Amino acid sequence: MSLREEKLLRRVTLASVGVAILLIALKLVAAISTNAISMMASLIDSTMDLFASLVTLFAVRIALQPPDEDHRFGHGKAEPLAALAQATFIAGSGAFLLLEAVQRLVRPQAIETVDWGIAVMVISMIATAFLVLFQRHVIRVTQSPAIKADAAHYGSDFLINAATIAALLLAHQGIGWIDPIFGASVGGFILLSAWFVGRKAMDQLMDREVLDGSEARIHAIAVSHPRVEAADHIRTRMAGRIMIIQLYIYLQNDLDLAHAHVIGDEVAEKIQEIFPGADILIHEEPFHGTNAPSITKSETGPSIQEIV
Predict the structure, then answer these.
(1) CA dist 70 to 66, 207, 236, Å?
(2) Has domain 3-205 been given CATH number 1.20.1510.10?
(3) How would you write the pLDDT of the chain (308 residues) with one tens digit per residue?
(4) Domain 214-307 classified CATH 1.20.120.420?
(5) Residues of the chain with CATH 1.20.1510.10
(6) Checking phi first, is residue 118 left (phi over 0); if not, alpha (psi -120 to 50) or beta?
(7) Strand arrangement of the beta sheet that strand 228-239 belongs to
(8) What residue spans in the chain does CATH classification 3.30.70.1350 cover?
(9) How many beta carbons lie within 10 A of that of residue 200, not counting itself?
(10) Calpha distance 291→301 (Å, rounded)
(11) Phi, psi torsion values for 277, nearest 5 degrees
């Protein structure tokens, strides 16, 4: 990871924490003064974001540490672990909000000082918009899963804040049931967000194959080398932002060991061009009838021209 990427990750996580603290302070006062479940929903959402941002800040600091004697593959999985912790907290917040909304439906309560609540929501939307724009820039540069999860929270915040304004206005006009209905809707949305964030985190922690056509692309790149007869045992997984690729290549029998490793390095360089920053491990095998893979370079599969 470049020095620029490290600085961006640190800056965006600190910015995320700062924005979350500001929004919580404003929304806490507004929730108390308005007594609105919609405002409470927004407060819970911002509190959730602060927790997520703190977890992300901690995880990114760990993930940026270089490999050491105890962690030879680096610390990249700190990020999906952080995302899983966020998903757990998000789910708990969503469940609490759903229960509170049901209670408000059964026992309605009056909403007060709507103007103050709307002012807080407008300030929140402006701060959130600037933060999300910064986060999206960092994601384009770093592809950090922890920042992606954090950005998803704040992106949903913008919509929630806008909907909160509408709910406050409608409730103030006498449509009292809209406030708890909105709170329940936000709770359901939060639970759904928790599911998606948690599932992506579990995919990385369980070393799920990268399911974006990578295997076919890697195979096409490998067999495009003139001395490679076939390739198989292709495996891919993600460790934070780093893609890990392993494969066997089958070489012509007349090659010595030194030449075989040179070819392996050349194949790895070609793969790096398509998957920058990937950690690539290639095992070279002689090509003969007893160990030949079922698909060789002369059989079906996309060509290197189709891949690039």
Answers:
(1) 11, 20, 23
(2) yes
(3) 577 777 888 888 888 888 888 889 988 888 888 877 778 877 887 787 777 777 777 887 787 787 788 887 778 788 888 888 888 888 887 888 888 788 877 777 667 677 888 888 888 889 888 988 998 888 888 877 778 777 877 777 777 777 788 878 887 777 777 778 877 887 888 888 889 888 888 888 888 888 778 888 999 999 999 999 999 999 999 887 788 999 999 998 888 889 999 999 999 999 999 998 889 999 999 887 655 565 555 554 555 555 55
(4) no
(5) 3-205
(6) alpha
(7) 228-239, 242-251, 279-286
(8) 214-307
(9) 20
(10) 20
(11) 80, 0
Tell the residue number behind the tokens 């006498």, with chain if given. Answer: 174
Residue 171: what residue type? A
* pTM beyond 0.70: no
Residue 162 amino acid letter: A
